[in-house]
Amino acid sequence: MTADAARPVVDALDNDPLVVASFLVWILGWLIGLLILAFGAWRARLVSLWVPLVLTAGMVLEAVSSGLAPKLVVSALMAAGLIGLARGLRPSRVESVSVAGR
């Protein structure tokens, strides 16, 4: 299949309101879900405050910037935040944190 043959299919998908709505729900769910996870991990004292703040800054910068340099900064911020989140949520770390009331 060539690019010219696929063009009508791509155009039809781009103009389908159900596809657009599904895509928007997916993107918003991913963005909001990641922030809820990050701030929840901070509130549970699994990660430092810088982790959700860096992820928030990366998402905001992604939304308002264009060009190569800002996108590289976004990539660095998101990588740092996701690595910090992963380190805080690793199984040995989660098991070692005491839970109130236990």
Model description:
The chain is mainly alpha-helical. It has one domain. It contains 5 helices and no strands. It has helices at 3-15, 17-43, 50-64, 68-89, 91-96. Helix 2 (17-43) runs antiparallel to helix 3 and helix 3 (50-64) runs antiparallel to helix 4. The termini are far apart.
Keywords:
mainly alpha, single chain, elongated
Gross geometry: elongated
The major pleated sheet works out as: none
Portion in strands? under 5%
Sequence stretches where pLDDT stays below 50 over 5 or more residues: none
- How large, in whole angstroms, is the Cα Rg? 19 Å
Average pLDDT score = 88
Helix content: over 70%
Q: Number of domains in the coordinates?
A: 1
> How widely separated are the two ends?
61 Å
Overall SS class: mainly alpha
In DSSP terms, counting alpha (H) and pi (I) runs of 4 or more, how many helices?
5
The beta-strand count equals 0
- The ordered H/E elements are HHHHH
Topology:
Elements: H1 3-15, H2 17-43, H3 50-64, H4 68-89, H5 91-96
Helix pairs in contact: 2-3, 3-4
Give a quick precis of the structure:
Keywords: Membrane, Transmembrane, Transmembrane helix. With 102 residues, the chain is an all-alpha fold.
